[in-house]
Every structure is written in structure tokens, then in C-alpha cells.
Amino acid sequence: MNNVMKKIMFGLISTLLGILISMSIREKAEIMSPMSIEKIENYNRELNVVENQINVDKEIISHIKSSIEEKSSPAYQDELKRSLQNELKELKILSGEYDIKGEGIVIMIDDSKDEDYKNTNLGIIHDIDIMIILNELKAAGVDAISINDVRVMGDSEIKCMGPTVKVDGHSKATPFIIKAVGDMEMIYNIMNDKNSYINLLETTYYMDVKVEKNKNIIIPKRDGRM
Question: What's the superkingdom here (predicted)?
């Protein structure tokens, strides 16, 4: 009897321990498994971000190395030198340090010969008339302008001096010959438009005005006199 009871008690205790151990393992598994999976997923995401950034950095480094190698080559250095020299020349041309040659138009304008306007204030070319014509030419996009072979720049001084007009210190008398280098056809059409200022001078005050196309105009460099 005692042996039987011992076996029964041992069996009950063993079963109870088995149940308790099984429940403990299941609880731990339920607690640990979700956290472990979440951590793994987070690590994977962080790893993907790092790997993507590494790939981007590699591409940037590769691009920089290629750019350095290209810009260090003799061919690139020669091309850069030529480009800078051309830009410098363009700046010198714009500043009036060089003659400019090209197609454009020649405007010849003289005081009115009409009996009603001859030798009157309305029939005489003034500095304001020249300034308006120059502004129309600039608006037409010309590259360079001269008045009686004196280069006209953005800061040029043009003013009446009795019967003459002084251009940067050069006294010039009529007829005034204004040359402009640029798109010949476009400039010619703009200056011959019925609404142009020279058309007004010609049709209203009967001033002597001519506009001609020219494929070989030379605008001299600025001589520096003001």
C-alpha cells in the first residue's frame, strides 16, 4: 500500500511539475518571441538604411574621383585656359578695349534743309535726339555703337556744344554718322519702323536721314578720352 501511494504521489508531483514547467516555458516564449522578432526587423531596417547610404556614398566618391581625374587631365586644362581667355577677350571687347567688326547698319543724319525748319531749333540735331536714337539701338540688341567713329559706351557723355555735339570730349559736327554692329536685318527693320524716332525726325521735321545695311562695319576701340 505504501508503495502504491508513493507511486501515486510521485506521479501527481511529476505531472504537476510538468504542467508548471510547460506553462512557464509557454509564458516565456509568448513574452520573448514577439520582442525578438521586432528587434530583428528593426535591425534589418537599420542595416538596409546603412547599406543604402554606403552605396550612395560610394557613388558620390566615385563621381568626385572621376571629376578630379577629368579636371586634372591636360586636355581639360587646355580647354579651361582657352575658355577663360575667350571670356577675358569678350569682357575687354565690351569694355571698349578692342575694335569690333561685323554686320550692322549705318545711320546718317543731318540738320533739316526744309525752309520752314532750316536753322531753327526744331530743325537742328540736338544731343537729346542722338540719345533717343542710341537708346533705340540698344533696345534692338546691338553689340557696339559709334558716332562719327567715336566708340559709345554705357558711361559715354554726349552733350550739345553750340553748333556741335561733344562725344566723350570729341567735338563732332553734322552730319552725324552712327554705326551699330549687330543683327543687320533686325536692326534695320526696327530703325525703319514707322514708329521709330528717326522716322519722326524725317517725316515731321524733314531732317536728312538715311539708314543703310552694311556687312563690314568697324567700331573702333575706346580711346579713353572723356
Answer: Bacteria
User: What's the total number of domains in the chain?
Assistant: 2
Furthest CA-CA distance within the chain: 159
Which residues are within 8 A (CB) of 113 and not within 5 positions of it... i.e. 6 or more apart? 206, 208
Residue 226 has pLDDT above 50, yes or no: no
Q: Are 143 and 90 in contact (CB under 8 A)?
A: no
Range of the domain at 24: 1-33
3-class DSSP assignment, residue 89: helix
CA angle 92-154-93, nearest 5°? 15
pLDDT (tens digit per residue) in 147-194? 999 999 888 888 887 778 888 888 888 899 999 999 999 999 999 999
> φ and ψ at 175, to 5 degrees?
-75, 145
